[in-house]
Write a structure and sequence with these properties.
Distance between the termini: 16 Å
Number of strands: 8
Number of helices: 7
Strand order of the largest sheet: 1-5-8-7-6
Structural class: alpha+beta
Shape: globular
Oligomer: single chain
Mean pLDDT: 94
Strand content: 15-25%
Length: 237
Amino acid sequence: MSEAALRDDLLHAYHILDADGQASGIAGHLTARLPGADRFWSHRWGVGFDEVRADGLIEADFDLKTLRGEGRVNPTLHIHTRIYRTRPDVTCIIHTHGKAGVALGCTGMVLEPITQTGAIFCDDIALFDEFHGIVLDTNEGDAIAAALGPRRGLLLKNHGALVVGASVAEACIGMTVLEWAADVQLRAAAAGPLQRLDVAAAAQSKKFLLDADNLGLRWAFLKRKIGRSRPFLGASA
């Protein structure tokens, strides 16, 4: 993937998540890097997801120093830098404070494989059962990276949710699924005992939904949809 394509996907991801209700004011953050790079792209600190534009993206290094662009990135992005250091397979990291994700984490539960769509997180999500305040140093970033391990997602108790992906598309789709599945689980738990998917069925659903072609089709749809309501993005094919 070219840098231009990476930045275009990142820009669309901000607006897709904003439309999904996961903007988090100025608190949420997305980053993306080219494979293996020790620098990343993000948005300017103090700007909401709906306000991000292509010319407002910032390239920063792992010390959070601006390399290209105007302004500075979110000071809590050591959540991201420490994951990138330990996960060369990760291209994009998303952290939001969606209501359902926060609520599920506050219960001390982790996401259970109870829906076909939510099966993408089967055996692939954990709970970070700690909260030491705002993440402003690398030590807390290291703790979060260790809790994530090789997984796709992490619920941060009393805080929010985090999803990683090998592409911006994979991470963004994952975060929308996590918020939806967390909401379904909270509703189901309020109604009665949770009924988990059969192990084999969950694995089959996960494999199908994470197939590169299927992810590509879903991502193209999401970009077209957000492009129709926000014309400055363009209705991407």
